[in-house]
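agent> Task received from the user: take the single chain below, predict its 3D structure, and emit structure tokens. No templates, no multimer pairing.
agent> Plan: (1) validate residues, (2) run structure prediction, (3) serialize to tokens, (4) report one or two observations.
agent> Step 1 OK, no nonstandard residues flagged.
tool_call: predict_structure(input=
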Amino acid sequence: RVVRRRLTRRRRVVLVALGAVVVLAALAWPLAHSRFLSATVVRVVGNDRTTVAAVLDASGLATRPPMIDVNGALAADRIEALPWVLSARLELHWPDGVVVRMTERRAVAVVADGSAGWAELDRTGRVLATVSSPPSGLVHLSTGSPGPPGTTLGSAAPSLTVAAALPVAFKAMVTGVSPSPGDGVDLALSGGIGVVFGTATQLPAKFEDVASLLAGAGLASGSVIDVSV
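)
tool_result: status=success, residues=229
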């Protein structure tokens, strides 16, 4: 009889505990999905070319979802799919705050898009935006046909490697970069001088050689400098 009483008491304790868990879960679910624990305070840091509205739409934060439903990794992946975004991460600050920290890509070149416009590219060939006129300070490429923003122009890889590495003083003289056979690159310089650059290797030495010849050789228009070897 004593054993039976003890077992009965234990069963009652277990049942009471289970009932308490069920009641707490039933109360916690609506509380966790209430407006008091929703992502109502969202701050975006590091955006310059990407609008806050675009970030909120891509991440799903525009609808102010419950904090418990915010998937930081998934939202970051969706934000990184935006043309200008290189990387993104989310920080959750309970009970209602989210901080989106992002790093944007940098345009290094432009290429004609075939419809009287220009596509801005970063060093990986990612199409960042299409514009009606090329922004100043960007190298002009003559390669391939770019797709819409967010796509990648793979054929421009060697030219972009050279364009991204151009020294500031030398960059001002470059009027165009174009591909040549065998993954090579040719440069067009102001004054009608051409450069057979070869592959995108040994860049500092090639830049130095071209700069030295331009400074001391007195080259005329139509001259060609070959630093491919």
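agent> Step 4: summary for the user.
The helical segments are 2-32, 52-59, 72-80, 157-165, 168-171, 203-216.
agent> Done.
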